[in-house]
Amino acid sequence: MTQIRSLAVLCGSREGADPAYRAAAERLGALIAERGVRLIYGGGSIGLMGVIADTVLSRGGEVVGVIPDFLVRYEVGHARVSEMIVTDSMHERKRRMFEMADGIVTLPGGLGTLDETFEIVTWKQLRLHSKPIVILDTGGYWAPLEALVQATIDGGFAHGAIAGLYTIVQSPEEVFDALAAAPEPDDVVLTSHLERG
Questions:
Q1: pLDDT higher than threshold 60 for residue 42
Q2: Is residue 52 part of a domain?
Q3: pTM value?
Q4: How many structural domains are present in the chain?
């Protein structure tokens, strides 16, 4: 079981159409601060990124932002975080966030959040890490992702065990239990597609 001291949260630079997304980010931020867990996030002061950072900070928690230099002006880099790391690229941003975190949580977001989530899950499939990954499916937002992953399995492009690379939960209150209970990745998620038929 992984001890979570630092948690990377992947989420949108917009708040989205459903007020439930903001509420979930606020609640997760409160739980992170209450547990004394350090938040690692994308460094912005807008959207769900800003919401979760502001919530953790308002409750006395530690927040580390990681943002590429070219996005500082677009995502309005957060001025009050405990530490801001400015990277040279998006790739470096993802790597730094991953390295500093003991676990990863995905909230609703756009293409950037999708990219970050797929990459971190793929790294786990390739056995580059075994950190727990939890997807917070507020209001059914991530149902299309579940359907897409199932389509890769049904289409013969992935082993069914890939569904065990991450855990989907419905509420912020479930996140930390899911992180603690995350299973080790099954070797078959890597080896099954390497076998020659």
A1: yes
A2: yes
A3: 0.93
A4: 1
Question: In terms of pLDDT, which residue wins out, 184 or 112?
Answer: 112
What type of residue is 110? G
pLDDT in tens, 175-184: 999 999 998 8
Range of the domain at 119: 6-194
- Confirm whether 167 is domain-assigned: yes
| Residue 159 forms part of a structural domain | yes
Any idea what the CATH number is for the domain that residue 49 is in? 3.40.50.450
Residue 1 included in any domain:
no
Tens digits of residue pLDDT in 67-84: 998 887 676 788 899 999
Q: What is the pLDDT of residues 123-154, one digit of tens each?
A: 999 888 999 999 999 999 999 999 999 999 99
